[in-house]
Amino acid sequence: MAARKSGSRSGTSKSRRSSGKSPKRGKSRGKWFSGNIHIALFLKLLLVLALLFLSRIIFYLINLSYFSSLPVSDALRIFVTGLRFDISALFIINAPFILMNVLPFRFRYHRIYQGIANGFYYFINNVAFIANFVDSIYFRFTLKRMTFDIFRYLGVGGDFDKLVPQFLKDFWYVAIIWIVFSGVFIYLGTRIGVRQERTAAKGSGFSFYFVNIILAVLILGVSVIGIRGGLQLRPIGLVTAGQYTSGKNIPLVLNTPFSIARTVDGESLTVRKWFKSEAALSDIYNPVHPGMKGQKEQKLNVMIIIMESFSREHIGILNHEYDNGRYQGFTPFLDSLIRHGRYFDGFANGKTSIQGIPAILSGIPSLMYESIIQSNYAANKMNGIAALLKPKGYRSAFFHGGTNGTMGFDSYTKLIGFENYYGRSEFNNEKEYDGKWGIRDESFFQFCAQTLNDFQQPFVATLFSLSSHHPYYVPGKYANVFRKGKLPIQQSIMYADHALAGFFHQAKKSKWYANTLFIITADHTSEGYFPYYQSDVGQYAIPILFFQPGTTWQEQSPGPAQQTDILPTIMNYLGYDKKFIAFGTDLFDPVAPRFSVHYITGLYGMIKDGYYIEFDGNRCTSLFYLKDDPLLKNNLAGTAKPVEGRLILFLKAYIQQYNNRVMENRLTCDS
Q1: Is residue 634 part of a domain?
Q2: Are 45 and 94 in contact (CB under 8 A)?
Q3: 3-class state of residue 273 by DSSP
Q4: 326, 421, 434, 495: which is deepest, by most CB within 10 A?
């Protein structure tokens, strides 16, 4: 027995010697690469970079209708340009993984240590890929890459847990793509390994540490350069993307992990000093409205109705030119009301509800990455129509059928003076809950009209709808009543318009109706179908309508108007005689400047004097003459210097007034 055992061991050793192979100490079976730790690190980072690049292409394909006007050659150029932002995101995301692998100590080769490092690598990069894929759908609602404010939004949203299953149901294919994507990533990543043999850390103590310290310094230095996006003076940011393409295509240059990382500090404003004196600044633009001295006050009720996602595109009377002149639209009641009111071609100041509400009710846009009511300045003293009118004897209320606390509307409206808040809790009938956002529009609009019957006049009230929001709820009894359109939202737009008609039908029976000024607008737009409504201008196009029963308006006003114009227009119409601040103009004043400003992905956009200009804070990146070029095909930047200079001067004054007043808490006349 002993002889056989000895022979067996001897034969095994002889066989190994004859094969010329040494016994493996590490697990390299199935690996495509198993060797030097620095080469393995490079290959794993290269894999992530390739997948980030691929996820941009998938983002493009999922949103191809939005980018349909982009030539293929320009798309390819943008893909290549986007690598600069992918590399920055790569190093930001993987900084801990890189550090773990370049530490100049022998324990980095240990199997458990490598397991922890690789576990972090697969986890953090899969989270980054999830962000890109989620954004491929979320983008169609905001038309920008997600920024860090998304986490503040989720923190005050109140409906996140109910909406996630609905999004997974509606956009299941994106989840499938991510699962496949993640599987490929993990499979390829596990084919790359680090030698576990003792020889991986061979060499004398001095030479090992000397060489690896030098390599660590070099690799970390390259990582810092990668994070900064190059050796230029300032690190790249979202605004840098504007150097490579027009504002509409910036989301295609960027990636979501980069956008979130670059806005994590939440501080997006800087003090501006373009104008050295307040007098020089105010000569160009001044947000202080002096009040209507000597004009008789009107004690009208004010009813502001904000319709969720009511893009101008959905309104038939405003779009006769489409479908060969046969476009019907999806708002028959609003169409009828426009014929009897004072209508303005309006533009939203933002792409989300929490940007639109303060613009409408406080006259304050959100010229930063997040809404002002989510920002570090949320506790600033602010104007609000309720607070301004309270000393005049107005009672106030805000109505929104969502779950109380959603998006922080209850806190914000209290901050700006609204005495009463009516939400899902106050409605107190869960049979009318839509299961996602809140109480169905039809029922909640009736509740609002009936509640106002008990209000002492004059009052100021705001009603904010919710049903025309994904998942675009339409009660079953109306499933075959309202037409479907080219966009999923349009049937629910018809339902919301029906609810609006029901509100007016109920209001007409009340004592307060005849003495009320109604303002109807939208919080923001939905995704667009027609090319104009997908453009950098059209994607903000909303209605702004003033209606007063029994009043004949002398003219229609094609615009431009913006949400921040609503507050000063109301206050001047009522004959309000005190000073107040609003970053808009009185739309009924024929000599007041007419313009609209928004901010998205590091660019300021302004419509004024028939032009649309984009400005990155330093230079004009785009200039278009809207009458001849509504689809923004011919960029005039650099070729129309007088016009460009005049518009930039005004926009700089607007930005300086906004930034400095917000940062210095000077948003009210008593601050």
Answers
A1: no
A2: yes
A3: coil
A4: 495
Q: What is the pTM of this model?
A: 0.82
The C-alpha atoms of residue 195 and residue 209 are separated, in whole angstroms, by 18
Specify the DSSP class assigned to residue 484: P
282: in domain: no
pLDDT at 65: 87
Q: For the chain, what's the residue count?
A: 671
Which residue blocks in 171-304 are alpha helix, DSSP H?
172-190, 205-228, 250-253, 256-262, 278-284
Residues 240 and 319 in one domain: no
The one-character DSSP state at 275 is S
Counted domains in the chain: 2
- Shared domain for 258 and 352, answered yes or no, is no
Asked whether residue 318 falls in the same domain as residue 431, the answer is: yes
Among the three residues 591, 623, 648, which one is the final residue of a domain in this structure?
Answer: 591
Domain that includes residue 310, residue range = 303-591
In a domain? residue 26: no
Q: Which residues does the chain have with pLDDT short of 70? A: 1-29, 152-163, 196-204, 266-268, 556-558, 671
Q: Are strands 33-35 and 395-400 parallel, antiparallel or unpaired?
A: unpaired
Which among 565, 591, 617 is the end of a domain?
Answer: 591
Torsion of CA 335, 339, 341, 344, to 10 degrees: 70
Taking the C-alpha atoms of residue 450 and residue 660, their distance in angstroms, rounded to an integer, is 43
**Domain co-membership, 217 together with 315:** no
DSSP string over 335-385: HHHHTTSEEEEEE-S-SSHHHHHHHHHHS----SSS-TTTSTTTTS----H
CA distances from 367 to 277, 371, 382 (A): 22, 8, 15
pLDDT of residue 7: 45
Taking the C-alpha atoms of residue 409 and residue 399, their distance in angstroms, rounded to an integer, is 10
Domain shared by 243 and 327, yes or no: no
Start-to-end CA span in the chain (Å): 99
CATH of the domain at 328: 3.40.720.10
| Residue 550, phi-psi category: left (phi > 0), alpha (psi -120 to 50), beta (remainder) | left
Query: In 10 A of CB 492, how many CB atoms?
Result: 26
Please write the tens of the pLDDT for every residue from 128-152: 999 999 999 888 877 889 888 777 6
Whether residue 248 is found in the same domain as residue 348: no
pLDDT of amino acid 666: 93
Task: Assess contact for 588 and 131: CB atoms under 8 A.
Answer: no
Closest Cα partner for 43 from 193, 182, 184?
A: 193
Phi, psi of 268 (to 5 degrees): -110, 5
Residues 307 and 251 in one domain: no
Amino acid at 387: A
Q: What is the pLDDT, as a whole number, of residue 294?
A: 79
What value does the CA radius of gyration of the chain take, rounded to a whole number of Å? 30
- Rounded Cα distance between 11 and 7, Å, is 6
**In this structure, are 244 and 327 located in the same domain?**
no
Residues contacting residue 73 through CB under 8 Å, at least 6 positions apart: none
Q: Does residue 660 sit within a domain?
A: no
